[in-house]
Every structure is written in C-alpha cells, then in structure tokens.
C-alpha cells in the first residue's frame, strides 16, 4: 500500500508541469471560444506548442481574424486545471491608443496640435 502511494505521488509530481498532458484540444477550444466570444467550431487552431505548463497556439476565425493565444495547465489532486485563454489579435498591440485630447489654446500656441 505504501509503495502504491509513493508511485502515485511521483507520477503526480512528474505530470504536474506538463501542459501536453494537462491541456486537451477540447479545453483549448472551449476556453478560446469563451475568451473570444465565439461559438466552438467557428475558428481553427494551429501551431500548438507545449512548453512546461504553457501551451501557445494560433487561432483563425471564419471572418479572417488571426489571434495569438495561450493557456496554462497542470494536473493536481483535483484533476486537470486549465487557465482561461489569453488572446491578442495579431497585428494589433495589447494596449489601445489613448483617445485624442481636444486641443486647448495653450497647446495651440505651443504648436502641439495637429
């Protein structure tokens, strides 16, 4: 009995950091659909790469938008744990441009208005 517990503990430790084991294709599709507000099946996933606990991949929607995404995943005593998908539209920065301020008289005088 004690040997069984030790073997189980060692196996859990070895698998805990493996995204390739913890992160299934189904969990990627489900979490990506939720993150992007799309239906499952309305996009394709490609270029999956597992590295430690992180899985990166690309998404192309049927409307032609491309995203770079990742999830993290581990296996613990409660089972598989996969994070929400984090996606950034390719070709766009993560931060949006600040709204332009109206040009006041002082800025005009300083030549800082377009």
Task: Please tag this protein with its features.
114 residues; alpha+beta; Nuclear Transport Factor 2, Chain: A; five-stranded antiparallel beta sheet; 4 helices; 5 strands; 32% strand
Architecture overview:
- It is built from four helices and five strands; from the N terminus they run αααβββββα.
- It has 114 residues and is α+β, with helices and mostly antiparallel strands.
- Strands 1, 2, 3, 4 and 5 form a five-stranded antiparallel β-sheet that branches.
- The longest helix is centred in the N-terminal third of the chain and has 14 residues, at 2-15.
- The mean pLDDT is 80.
Q: Estimate the helix proportion, in percent.
A: 25-40%
Distance between the amino and carboxyl termini: 77 Å
Query: Rg to the nearest angstrom?
Result: 22 Å
SS elements, strand count: 5
User: N-to-C SSE series?
Assistant: HHHEEEEEH
The overall number of domains is 1
Topology at a glance:
Layout (H helix, E strand, L loop, with lengths): L1 H14 L3 H4 L2 H12 L6 E9 L2 E8 L4 E11 L2 E4 L3 E4 L15 H5 L5
Antiparallel strand pairs: 1-2, 2-3, 3-4, 3-5
Offer a quick outline of the entry.
The protein is of the alpha+beta class and 114 residues long. It is built from four helices and five strands. It has a single domain, classed as Nuclear Transport Factor 2, Chain: A (Roll), CATH 3.10.450.
């Amino acid at each position: 009995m004690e040997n069984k517990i030790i073997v189980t503990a060692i196996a859990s430790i070895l698998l805990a950091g493996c995204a390739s084991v913890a992160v299934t294709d189904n969990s990627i599709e489900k979490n990506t659909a939720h993150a992007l507000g799309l239906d499952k099946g309305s996009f394709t996933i490609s270029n999956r790469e597992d590295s430690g606990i992180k899985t990166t991949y690309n998404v192309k929607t049927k409307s032609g938008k491309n995203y770079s995404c990742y999830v993290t995943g581990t296996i613990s005593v409660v089972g598989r744990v996969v994070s929400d998908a984090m996606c950034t539209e390719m070709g766009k920065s993560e931060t949006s441009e600040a709204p332009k301020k109206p040009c006041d008289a002082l800025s005009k005088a300083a030549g800082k208005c377009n």
